[in-house]
Every structure is written in C-alpha cells, then in structure tokens.
Sequence to fold (527 residues):
Amino acid sequence: MWNDLKAMAEACEGRRIEDLFADETRAQDFSLTACGMLFDFSKTQLDEGIWEALLEMADKAAVPAKRDAMFAGEKINETEGRAVLHTALRNLDARPVLVDGHDVMPAVLDTLDRMERLARDIRDSDVTDVVNIGIGGSDLGPAMAYLALAPYADGPRCHFVSNVDGADIADTLKGCDPERTVFIVASKTFTTIETMTNAQTAKGWLARHGVDDSGKFIALSSNVEKAGAFGIPEDRVLGFEDWVGGRYSMWGPIGLSLMIAIGPEDFRAFLQGGQEMDRHFVEAPLAENLPVALALVGMWHNQVLGYATRAVLPYDNRLARLPAYLQQLEMESNGKGVRMDGISLSYDSGPIVWGEPGTNGQHAFYQLIHQGTRVVPCEFLIAARGHEPELQHHHDLLIANCLAQSEALMRGRDLEEARDRMAGKFEGEELERQARHRVFPGNRPSTTLIYPLLDPATLGRIIALYEHRVFVEGVILGINSYDQWGVELGKELATALGPLVSGDQPVDGKDGSTAQLLRFVHTQKAG
Ligand code: F6P
Fold:
C-alpha cells in the first residue's frame, strides 16, 4: 500500500501543481463541501489516481467499520480497555449510546443540565473572574475556545492557569478580587501534579486574603473521592467517564469555563456544530467525507512524501491557540511508535504540528516556508466574514493575504522572472547573484479550509473535524490514538528528582549532566 503510493509520488516528481489546473474542473474535483465549510485541497500534487489509491487505503484499513465501532461504544482504546465516546457529549438528540450494554446518555444529559445550572448561577452572581486550573486536555480546549469565541463572551472574565511555574498563577491572581473569584479545578484524574500544586496555591491565596474557600471551588473530574479530599463537596464536582480522553474532553464538564463565559445557549450551539460534523463523518461516503479527506491529504504529505511537519495557519486571530490545541490532539494521539498489536511501526507516525495565526507568521517563519530547503505543507483556515463589519477593510486584507500565500507557495518565482525584476538595478554577475536570492521554488502544497464566520457552531464543526481526522489517521496507521504512555516517564523522573532539587537527597547517583545542572541550581539558591 505505502509502496504503491510512494511509486506514485516518484512518478509525479518535478510535476508542477500549477500545471494541474490546466484541467478546468480541478478546483472542484479536489474540494469538498460539508457543514457549510469548503475544504480545498487542489493546491497539492494529488491527482485522480493518487486520490483513488488513498481512498482505497482508507477502505482497506476498515475506516468505516472502525468508525462505527467507536460510535457504538466498543472498547477501541485497547491498551486501557476503554471505549472512546467523546461524541456522546455532543449527542444532543440523546440517541442511546451503550457502554457494556448500559445507555450513557441519561447521565451525560444530566451532567450537561448541572453544568448549565452552575453556569447560570455564576453568570447571575457578582463573580467577576473564573480561574480554570488544569493542564493539557483540561486546559487547551477551553482556553483555545474562550479566545476563539471572544465576541460571544458576555459572562465573567476567564483565566487559564496551567503551568507549574508559579509565574502563571501569580500573574493571573494579581488581577483578581479574592471575594469575587471562582476557581475551577479541572483534572480528569485529580492527581496531576501541576494542577494540584496550583489548586493548593489558590486555596492559600484565598486564606491569605481572609476569604472562606467554601463555595469558591468547583471540580471537573472523574475522581470524586480525590476532589472530596481536596475539600470540594460532591455537589460541586462535575464528573465524566473514562471513555472521554483528556484531549477530547472540552465538550463536557471540562468546557465549564467556556460555558460560563459564553452562556449555555451558545455552548449548546458549539455542541450542535460538533454533532453536525459527527453526522457528516458517519454518513458521508469516504470520497465525500471531510475528516477522511483531511487525513488522507495529511498522510500523503507526511507518510508518503516524507514531509515531517505540518503548519496550521489560521488567518483568524482568535484561533491563535488552535495550533497548540492541535499539537496535543494530533501529537499525543498519533505520536506512537508501535501498532495496536505491539509491533513497531515501519512507517512514520503522525506529523509534527505547529503554527501561528496569519498574518503574523508571514513576518516571521514564512521565509523558511517559501525559500527554505524543506517542504512544509501548510493548512490555511479562514472565515469568509469577520465579527467586525465596521472593519471590513481589515478582513478583506486578511483574506487577500491568506490567498496570496497559498498562491505564492504554489507558483513560486523562477530565475528568469527574478532576473527580469532586478534587471534595471544590477547587471552581469551581480544581477545573477541578486536574482538567485529572489527565486522562490514554488510547487509547495497547501490546503485551505474556509468557513462563513467563527461562531460557536462553526468552532464545534472545526474541532470535531480535526478530532475525526486524527481518528482516521490513527486507524490507517494501525495505532491506538487514545492512550498517551509517552508522557509517563518524564512524570516519574520529575517525582524522583524532587528531593534532589530541594537538596534532601544527594545528586551523586545522577548522570553527569543532570548532576551538574542540579549543582548549579543549588549554588544559585544558596547565593
Ligand atoms: O500528561 C498528559 C495528560 O494525561 C493529558 O493526556 C491530559 O490531558 C493531561 O495530562 C491532564 O490530565 P488530568 O486532566 O488528569 O489532570
């Protein structure tokens, strides 16, 4: 399968993407429309034959059957023996979803109801600030969405404290009034050291200001017992089950801060958008399926052509945290070295995902994207309309820049054109030298996802789209996208290093580098 695709890649080496547009229907043939969004992947090397082969690969990997198994609550997270059912959190029409023969929907809807009551109470109270304390999936989703949906945020201010670096909580609390601040401790396990440390610091901060902390904390966790031990009573704990992975959890209780900010109605619109994408993913044939297309184009670039990274470039300033969110979603899910059966992968795992909003990135790393020696497939996202009609000229410029970048990446500029442009200024060898610096190789692939407006439903559609894309990639790679053992070793070593940092244990047994760094710390502390 991979070999056939690699042979196809070799066969089209040197072919110019631009020339493929001689086929007048190319743009339509290599675009999909679903849930009001248009995904254009025509500015890539894909042709009919490659697209067919990629679709066949998805079919052979049994993507439809595995998708149905996920939605049916089968335990597809085999290394942890868990179902994968974040989709149940946005299953607003309450179609039964069975886990071990038991319908989970009544409990899901009951929790949503409790979230809404709590959110309304807080929005109607004199609370001015809500601080979400959580990390990874207990932070990135709501933090990303809070920024994305700023035009809808008419509730208290929300802050997101994640880092164990005391700077994070110290800087956040500086602007908060202890009497009018509520803390949300978001941790599926309620054991994560960063979150527990920050939560204790928050408690200490309230105590220092003489504020009684009862009623000041809410827990979002599967671990009611541990939340209770921290001092949060059960009626202020919003739980979720082990079939909701951390990086897929913003649709349920982990989204509480977002719900408080934008209100329960807009939060439901966000869920509806996600549910709409679920329906599309389940119902559309592979060849018309948006998540499948994103996955296949990504795999063509990463596993077949060997482009190690993927730039996510939202021309939507409010999606500034989307690349960080997608880093966890994609890299924690598909950054695996073995297949589900424990055999090492013989091809690359998921790509390195990175990015920044446009146009800012243009004035920073786009130099490398256009003229560097490595090819970076770019994924552009843009809204046809902005939220600031009075600033329409800004939005027009934004769109022009986004389209200009994908065009520039594809077209490039050859030596002859560069020479012509410099001809008046230089001549002879100097003209040649100057012209060569102004050559753009072009033929660099990009895709564009365009949507009407970044409203709650659209954000829901986009996030569900990316979730399902990760799923499809994982199925084709044959890996488990739903565990994350790779984060464990560092956690264990950090725990063991604690007493060495504090000086309670000698550094001698450590490797030379670690011991040297610890001694530097000790000298500075003493100093
Ligand atoms: O360390 C990785 C991780 O387990 C993520 O998968 C998760 O989103 C994050 O830590 C936070 O975990 P918790 O919600 O249990 O605090």
Q: What stands out?
A: Residues 456-477 form the longest helix (22 residues). DSSP finds 21 helices and 13 strands in the chain.
